[in-house]
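Input chain follows. Return structure tokens only.
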Amino acid sequence: MQTTLLIIAALTAVVFLVLLVYFITRWQFENRFHRWQESKLQLWQMEKERTQREAISQSRAVLGGKFTEQLAPYLPEFKYDPTEARFIGSPIDLIVFPGLASDDPQEIVILEIKTGKNCQLTQRERKIRQLIENGMVRWELIERP
């Protein structure tokens, strides 16, 4: 009888210890998981704020560039008569017809305006420049009766 009680007590102690180890391990894991989750959430929040700041900054730069493109004919460094410039916007910014104001155009100038630190032509703009330099420009007339 004593042996049976001893075995039951031992089994109870083992079950108790197993449950104790299980709950302690689970508690430690959950704590570690919550700390990890909080750190990832904090990192995500910082990344989100950084991305928002970059988006706002880039948007301001684009808007400033578009404003400058349209304002360019009225800036002091613009070497043509502003009344002879026509804003296109895309894929090129301006077409200038020097001499147009006096009804004697002398040439056609295709003008691209770049602002900011990273002033590079896009692939499309480089292709257009190459077409112009290669003389791949022509005149067409559409007449409707």
